Automatic annotation (TrEMBL):
Main location: membrane
Transmembrane segments: 89-108
A GO term for molecular function: SNARE binding
Residue ranges that the Swiss-Prot or TrEMBL entry lists as coiled coil: none
Organism: Anopheles minimus
Membrane topology: Single-pass type IV membrane protein
Localization (cell): Membrane
Protein name (record): t-SNARE coiled-coil homology domain-containing protein
Family of the protein in this entry: Belongs to the VTI1 family.
Organism lineage string: Eukaryota, Metazoa, Ecdysozoa, Arthropoda, Hexapoda
Length: 111
């Protein structure tokens, strides 16, 4: 009878070991599935980040071009302001010369 208990004890240990092994296997399978899903999610994130990076680089290039265009526009506006100022000065000088000539002609006429 002692031999029978001994076999039963070993059988219980083997069954418990098998249950532990099955639980461990299931846990490993779940961990493997989670790792696969995580890897898939990581690839999706990397792809999305690459698309966003390209978009940001295009935006950066457009902003650099816009900045260059603004600099050129600013230079053109400064030149136009300078030309307007010169034109005003020339117009004022012409008006002053006409007034001086008119005053000189009136002075000659009445003298």
């Amino acid at each position: 009878m002692a031999d029978f208990d001994w076999n039963d004890h070993h059988r219980q240990q083997v069954l418990q070991g098998r249950q532990i092994l099955e639980r461990t296997s299931a846990s490993l399978a779940r961990s493997n599935q989670i790792a696969i899903e995580t890897e898939h999610t990581g690839h999706e994130v990397i792809n999305e980040l690459e698309v966003q990076r390209e978009s940001l680089l295009r935006s950066q290039r457009r902003l650099a071009n816009a900045n260059d265009d603004l600099s050129k526009s600013g230079a053109i506006l400064r030149a136009m302001k300078r030309n307007v100022l010169y034109n005003k000065l020339i117009l004022i000088m012409i008006i002053v010369m006409e007034v001086v000539i008119l005053a000189g002609m009136l002075a000659l006429k009445f003298m």
